Amino acid sequence: MRILIAEDDKNLNHTLTERLQSKGFDVDSCFDGEEALYYASQNIHDVILLDRMLPLMEGSMVLSELRKNNIYVPIILITALGTLKDKVDGLNLGADDYLVKPFAFDELFARIQCVTRRSPILNMTNMLRLADISYNEADSTLTGPKGSCTCSNREGTMLEIFIRNSGQTLSRNTLLLKVWGPDSDIEEGNLDNYIYFIRRRLKAVGSCLELKTVRGIGYCLLEREKLP
User: Which fold has domain 127-226?
Assistant: First the structure.
């Protein structure tokens, strides 16, 4: 799961980044509203932690622009503005939750779990299941009819994306952004390598799922009998 942190307090930003990474999240961070809008507009994050009072562009404006552009990723506003009116205004702009500083990390983590459970595009759980396979995010284990295998972190991230978006064609650019992040200068050849690795993993566990190449666009995870 990939999280974007938009927080101009560098100490808090770095602390949250380290704590969330220790929980197994992929984290991108930025320190002003213009960067936040740029990163969030890529629509590659599963949750956004958005400070309301950011330099260059306020978080409330970032939130409004994202919702105006039909980007509905769960967003938790994080702010020192804690009056009832502030909270109501933030929720009316389209925030999924509102957390007032200072806060405990355990509360933030609980709220992340809550908004991901409510999200129609995401359900935060350690076990993902599709057709005849299951993938345990906790220990990176893929299981199918013929047994189990352990995936690398990058393989696991890619598997998770394909399972959560089964039946949808994901472009090469989307995969590069979701797996390696918006600041990576990874070469496209590396993506080809990991597509090969995922196909090999699916074959090793005897799955009926196949990673189909959609020429000129990207890849789609489908059951073989549903392949056109």
Answer: Arc Repressor Mutant, subunit A (1.10.10)
Would you list the domain boundaries of the chain?
A: 2-118, 127-226
Indicate the average pLDDT of the chain. 87
Cite the DSSP H helix spans in the chain.
Answer: 10-22, 33-41, 59-68, 84-92, 105-118, 153-164, 172-180, 188-204
pLDDT digits (tens, 9 = 90+) for 46-57: 899 999 999 999
Residue type, 125: T
CB atoms within 10 A of CB 188: 10
Return the DSSP state at 123: -
Tell which CATH classification among 3.40.50.720, 3.40.50.2300, 3.30.1050.10, 3.90.1150.10 matches the domain 2-118: 3.40.50.2300
The residues facing 222 across adjacent strands are 210
Neighbours of 160 (CB within 10 A): 20
> pTM of this prediction?
0.66
H/E stretch holding 103 reads none
For the cut 70, the answer to whether the pLDDT of residue 126 exceeds it is: no
